[in-house]
Structure formats: structure tokens, C-alpha cells
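User: Batch of two.

Assistant: Item 1 of 2:
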Amino acid sequence: MKKIVMTGGGTAGHVTPNIALMPALRSEGYEISYIGSYEGIEKGLIEAQKVPYYGISSGKLRRYFDVKNFSDPFKVIKGYYQSIRLLKKIKPDVVFSKGGFVSVPVVLAAKHCKIPAIIHESDITPGLANKLAIPSATKVCCNFPETMKYLPEGKAVLTGSPIRQELLNGNPSNAIRLCRFENTEKPVILIIGGSTGSRAINTAIRDLLPELLKRYNIIHLCGKGNLDETLKDTDGYAQFEYANKELADMFALASLVISRAGANAICELLALHKPNILIPLSAAASRGDQILNANSFRSSGYSYVLEEEAVTNTALLEAIDHVFSHKERYVEAMEKSNGTNSIAAIVSLIDDAAKKN
């Protein structure tokens, strides 16, 4: 049996594409193992897939001053030697990395062990972890044509992002029951603020509820610890910290999605042809990758973009009205997108690398 080690973590965005690949890899005869951090978000997500999980020491490499910058490099070095031992024990034919800082020692260890490593970059510009890993990679997969110029010639492959196939098969009736909507004639707006939620988005949506609920039902994924108990019995408003298997049903029911602009999230919206408003994480709170992602989708006609600094009740309400008035135009643009079969493309690269090993 062929063997593959997958890695990636820190956020769900560094894990869910790996999970999306797993059914296809299993059907191709791969035995899958996973290397992640000791207690990162990836641990629970991967163990739920019944995949052997190995934790290693992991440190974050920051672009800004932090006292942890003095200790974290030693954690990365420890993780590197742990990864070498694990790869020699598992003996994989190939390593696949979705990024995040835990993946760096694994990819470097793969090169040391002469195991081909394929990495995937979701955003338009490579993040620091992938920048460190690219020299040790055999191939680098990417989502956007714009990314190709940032990657070494001969390594870069435009594949798109693997989408969990279950998202394409949601049942709207299940979401109606879960949300207990009484008036099912109203169109539904789904708000996704990320795993930690967005204060700006959450506040604007809740301030606008009296106006929005006249015309729409609302599903609000507000992030961990952000439920508003005073609104729990509001008819037409269903709030959840997050959604797992239920997300496919929520997508199926939604007529419009308001979302952050993480690369995996927007690729899911594109695959589902969902009219959407993107509110990217501000440059003040990130390296600006979500802004680049959102602008790429806006220029392609897939999305309406509202900068976080510009989120006001009036601006958000105008954005919702605009997208609903022009939703057919957005759907048509997404239907014309020349998306590749990302899962097939990536599995083919993995197979090629494994055969050459």
C-alpha cells in the first residue's frame, strides 16, 4: 500500500483542504498519517477522520517583535528532529503540506529524508511558513493565477483549492428544522465570521436585525464565545458559534452569504455559486492576504467587497440590497469560472511524486 503523510495546522483553513483530499487518496490506495502540533485545532479535526495523528513541537515565526521569538525557533528545531524520526518510522512515499507553521519542520524533514513534498498555497501571496518550505518542496500548488509569479518556475502548478464534496450536497430542509424558521418564504442570509468571529460583522448584523428580519431569515455563525443570549428566541434569527456537518445544509438554504475572505472560504462560495459579500480581515490585523483574495474575486465579478473599516449599518444594508438586486449577475460570473477539478489535479501530482520516489 502507498503511504502519505499530510501536515498543516494553526487554523481550520490549513486543515479542511487536507480533509477534502482524504476520500480520493483512500480510493487511490493511500494509507494516510498526519503530523500536526500537540494540541492545535488540527488534532481534533484529523482524529475525527480516523487518521493516525502524531503531534510535534511547533513554534510560530513572527514578522514582529515578541519575546516568544527567542524561544520558538528552538521549538521549530525540536519539531524538525521529531519529524525526521516520524518520517523514518512511517516511511511515506510522499508528504503533502497545507501550510501553517507546524508544517515547516515536516517539509524540511522530508527533504532531509529524500521524500518528495508537495505544498499548497491558498492565498495570492505565499505566507511566511510556505516561503520557508518552498525551497524544500517538489511542487507548489496554488489557487490563483496571480500567485504563479511569486513561485519558482517549474514548481508552481495552478490547481485551485480542494473543496469538501459534502458541501455540494446539502439539504435545505435540514437547515430549516435546525434553525426553526417559521416563515420559510423569506430568503436566507448566512453570515460566516470565521472560527473566532468578527466583532465588526457581529455588531452590524445584530444592530440591523429589526430591519433585516422584515425581509430575510438570518443564520449567524458568530464565532466561539460570541452568542447573544438576549436574541436566542428571536424569530427568524438563528445563531451558532460554528457549524460542522450542518454547514452544507446551511449553504444549500442560503440565498446570500456574508463572509470573511479566507482563501478556502471564498473557493467554497465559488464552487457553490453563492452570491456573496466579502468583508476581508483588515491589514491592521493581518498581512493583508484576505484583502488581496477579496479584490481578486471582485475583479472577476464573483463578489461584492466591503472593507472592514467601512462596515457600518448603512453600508452593510446597502451591500445586501445591491447583491440581492444583482444576484443573477454574480451567479452567472461564477458559473463561467474555469475552475479545475482541484482534487483530481492534486492527487495526480501526489501520485507522480510517489512513483518517482
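Item 2 of 2:
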Amino acid sequence: MNFTVVNHNISVGNIDVGGVSSASIFLVGDTDTIILSCVFDTPPESLIIGPFVPLAPE
């Protein structure tokens, strides 16, 4: 995916982060490159493929 972003001035007063998951990114400002990677180290025999767990109703 290639896209162009034109940023203008940014002013951030306060940031309150309530939690961070193991697959998250928090970015304020500019960056040239973001490289994502994933390592799955769970043995195949422990993988459970079954029905999806329903989400809470909205």
C-alpha cells in the first residue's frame, strides 16, 4: 500500500494512554517508514480452531 500524507502543524497538549496491547502502535508526528512483523511461537497442536466467541451486543 502506498499513500501520500501532507502534514501541517500539530500541537498535542496531553495524552492519556489507558493500556497498550501486544499488537499496537502509538504515533504522534511524522515517520518515514513503519515495518511490521509477527512471530507466532505457539506449537500447532495447541491451536484450537472452533466456533467464534460472540462479541457483546452493542
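Residues 2 and 33 are 11 Å apart (CA to CA).
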